């Protein structure tokens, strides 16, 4: 077992959490200050130090990579592309940097929640399966040894997709009435509810929709309660299965809470994620995330790789595929958040089920 002196453990824990927090996804007005928020550093230091004291690998858990948006104005299609690949490369490189500070290193378990609520957001179970399989192939193809994937399918082997969702919510998560009451009381949930409603309105405004916008808005408001309820049930289940992990999130988080919001790619705002956008080569050796329609409006050209559409390149940018990720950054003064992403990995062994990336 790897051992550190007490002082070395304290210093190493601080350095490790700094490596994570420098890529922190922040809410505007959350209370976080500085390049690395010292209050967040103090809040999460103990969990890292505990793993180090025991000489074990630091285990991060990240609900993410659910499925591609069903709106063709935002993405290239139903399968992961360079946007996801760059995010995976970044996570692997983050674990590598942690290993330079703490030799046992770190692992990230990606807990894909596409199966949790895909029926609510208009994505077929078949596309969720295809997306998860491609993420696993991508992890293997880029040679990532510190990442793994865990899905709802791993929790209840043999159950059909409807049964999976029913078992997840049996005894977990709030009821719709409880959520309605919580929204009426105000607080953080109001912002999440409104954001998810806006997000779903955007994603479900697809070319095939023939109803009125008012009707779609009403539908999305109802669906938002279901998304929140199932997301909380998934969160509760993951806490049961992986009690000793350090929790990450693709959502911006308030200061000093139990989860660390983590940027997976360079983005112009605090909410955009790889599965709701495309990767765009800006021509300066960096990539940013944009909605497909915005990239096309900017005159970007489509680049293919591995036999299918990969990303866009702005005029003057080389039509090449990168082999490593650059450190993601977020605009210091993001525009009003358009909507939160709904997602919400070495392999970790859960209390029950089997974490794997071989589907």
Brief descriptors of the model:
single chain; 359 residues; PvcA; globular; alpha/beta; four-stranded mixed β-sheet; disordered C terminus
Question: What does it look like?
Answer:
The protein is an alpha/beta fold. The chain contains 11 helices and 9 strands. It has helices at residues 6-21, 38-53, 82-101, 114-117, 125-141, 152-155, 161-169, 176-185, 188-204, 213-241, 292-297; strands at residues 58-62, 106-112, 147-151, 246-249, 260-261, 278-281, 287-290, 301-305, 308-313. Strand 6 and strand 7 (287-290) form a beta hairpin. Helix 1 (6-21) crosses helix 2. This is Pyoverdine biosynthesis protein PvcA. InterPro entries: Isocyanide_synthase_DIT1, PvcA. Residues 315-359 have a biased composition (Low complexity). It holds the Pfam family DIT1_PvcA.
Write the layout of secondary structure elements.
Layout: H1 6-21, H2 38-53, E1 58-62, H3 82-101, E2 106-112, H4 114-117, H5 125-141, E3 147-151, H6 152-155, H7 161-169, H8 176-185, H9 188-204, H10 213-241, E4 246-249, E5 260-261, E6 278-281, E7 287-290, H11 292-297, E8 301-305, E9 308-313
Parallel strand pairs: 1-2, 1-4, 2-3, 4-5, 6-9
Antiparallel strand pairs: 6-7, 8-9
Helix pairs in contact: 1-2, 1-3, 9-10
């Amino acid at each position: 077992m790897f051992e550190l002196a007490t002082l070395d453990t304290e210093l190493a824990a601080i350095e490790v959490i700094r490596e994570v927090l420098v890529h922190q996804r922040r809410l505007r007005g959350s209370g976080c200050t500085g390049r690395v928020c010292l209050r967040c550093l103090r809040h999460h230091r103990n969990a890292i130090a505990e793993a180090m004291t025991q000489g074990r690998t630091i285990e991060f858990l990240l609900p993410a990579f659910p499925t591609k948006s069903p709106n063709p104005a935002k993405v290239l299609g139903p399968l992961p592309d360079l946007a996801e690949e760059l995010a995976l490369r970044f996570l692997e490189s983050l674990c590598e940097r942690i290993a330079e500070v703490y030799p046992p290193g770190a692992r990230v378990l990606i807990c894909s929640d596409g199966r949790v609520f895909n029926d609510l957001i208009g994505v077929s179970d078949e596309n969720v399966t295809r997306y998860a399989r491609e993420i696993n192939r991508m992890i293997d193809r880029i040679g990532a040894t510190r990442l793994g994937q865990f899905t709802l399918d791993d929790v209840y082997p043999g159950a059909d997709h409807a049964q999976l969702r029913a078992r997840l919510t049996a005894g977990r998560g709030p009821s719709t009435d409880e959520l309605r009451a919580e929204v009426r009381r105000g607080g953080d949930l109001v912002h999440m509810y409104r954001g998810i409603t806006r997000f779903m309105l955007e994603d479900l405004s697809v070319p095939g929709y023939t109803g009125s916008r008012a009707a779609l808005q009403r539908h999305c408001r109802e669906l938002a309660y279901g998304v929140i309820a199932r997301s909380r049930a998934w969160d509760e289940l993951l806490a049961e299965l992986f009690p000793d992990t350090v929790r990450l999130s693709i959502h911006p988080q308030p200061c000093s809470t139990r989860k660390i919001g983590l940027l997976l790619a360079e983005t112009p705002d605090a909410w955009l994620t790889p599965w709701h956008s495309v990767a765009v080569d800006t021509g300066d050796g960096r990539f940013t995330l944009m909605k497909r329609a915005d990239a096309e409006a900017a005159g970007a050209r489509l680049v293919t790789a591995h036999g299918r559409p990969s990303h866009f390149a702005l005029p003057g940018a080389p039509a090449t595929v990168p082999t490593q990720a650059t450190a993601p950054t977020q605009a210091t003064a993001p525009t009003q958040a358009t909507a939160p992403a709904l997602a919400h990995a070495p392999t970790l062994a859960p209390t029950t089920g089997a974490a794997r990336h071989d589907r």
